[in-house]
Amino acid sequence: MTRAALITGISGGIGAALGQAFRAAGYRVIGTGRQRAGDDICDAFVEADLNAMAEDDAALARFAATVRDALEGAQLYALVNNAAAQILAPVEGLSMDAWRRTMNVNLTAPFRLVQTFLPELEAARGCVINIGSVHAQATKPEFAAYATSKAALHGLTRALAVDLGARVRVTCLAPAAISTPMLMAGFEGREAAFQELEACHPLNRIGAPEEAAQAAVFLASPGAAFATGTTFYLDGGVLSRLHDPV
């Protein structure tokens, strides 16, 4: 039977690479997002507002029914919780609406999707891959909401793995800076700043979306069959390096 992967946030830089990599690995890819993805990225696209679904049972039920129809007989094997909200603000300027949206999209929606699709994932002896972040361990000013949500997602990964045991594996992939179109646009005309970012990583470069995607495909593969509750840091060594003045 064909295996399927449900990938949230498919339209972003990492999401698009995830869709292409899972398709290349033989999966039927169901992509979700608020902006439609191309046919080269997923086999079926389901529009989704994760912020709304985190709080609205009816919206979540409608989404789940559409996803199940889109499977077209394939077996849901992998749920990849990739979508994320990153709202930057200093503590005194962070609104409660921004805080709630961040937690809804980055933490509550992934948990609710696991609950919703647990019967299919368990039947397939499948896996959940949460896309975390190095910000769960080390962060920067104005990232309070994002960093907190990702730290909680890493914790959720461990808790789900313990609860679900051999029924469904749960892992987390935590990238550092990745050369997505959004990140690169932010450095347009700022070559020195981009070189400084690269130099923070012992590998002297940032990661590529394809590298993150291949790591996720590995975590879903039989080669990672003994991995659950763990976080794989795809960080170019940045978390291993002190940044004290020389």
UniProtKB/TrEMBL annotation:
Lineage per the UniProt record: Bacteria, Pseudomonadati, Pseudomonadota, Alphaproteobacteria, Maricaulales
Pfam families: adh_short_C2
Entry keyword set: Oxidoreductase
Protein name: SDR family oxidoreductase
Entries under InterPro entries matching the protein: NAD(P)-bd_dom_sf (IPR036291), Sc_DH/Rdtase_CS (IPR020904), SDR_fam (IPR002347)
Family indicated by similarity: Belongs to the short-chain dehydrogenases/reductases (SDR) family.
The keyword Oxidoreductase is annotated on this UniProt entry: yes
Keyword Nucleotidyltransferase attributed: no
Gene3D superfamilies, per the entry: NAD(P)-binding Rossmann-like Domain
GO molecular function, a single term: oxidoreductase activity
